[in-house]
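Reopening this ticket.

The earlier resolution said the output was attached, but the attachment link was broken on my side. Pasting everything inline this time so it's all in one place.
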Amino acid sequence: MPATATDHASLIEGVPGNPSERFRTLPAPDRIERAAEALRRNGMTVYVEADRKAALARVKAIIPEGAEVFTGTSRTTEETGIMDLLDKSGKYRSVRAELAKMDRKTQGREMIKMGATPEYIVGSIHALTEQGQAVVASATGSQVAPYAASAAKVVWVVGAQKIVRDLGEAFDRLREGSFPMEDARAKKVYGMGSSISKVLIVQKESTPGRISVVLVPEVLGF
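Inline output:
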């Protein structure tokens, strides 16, 4: 089921000091459009959708049925129903579903390669600057390689609350907004915390059509 405001609230309440409210606030429409135009100038395809249902429909339109798809761990893809569509509908070749059948002890290296080089990878980012820079933080780095270069196609679904002024504010958002909530989620789900171990900044995409960004004027994900 998609996450609700209550789900987010329960996580926020469990975070010492609570994440800064300014990183969970939607920007004015002109800031959303400014970020979208900057992404386009930086070589990315951008769709500004009305809501999460429209975002789900857009992802269906972008990714043909039968395609190989890896869903990066993402609260946003869970909340929008995108993860269920891609991993459970049977209409796509789900890398995540295939990985779940494998033995990490004996097939670990093969599993890493499968996750690193999918035809499509679908996930989200943690901050988007008004200059069109996408910022992604990771504890393990598993999504960094496919996002940066090794996946043939990248689709990011992004709640507009992640739009920030610049890279300085993007890192503030990572530390004060995204990380505390992800750390609380990881402790609840895995029994251990997360970390900001590796950070990817995508300032430009040189391959036309490789990266698609679906912007949604809703609070989605962390």
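Reporter confirms the inline version is readable. The chain has one domain: 20-216. Confidence is low (pLDDT under 50) at residues 1-6, 9-16.
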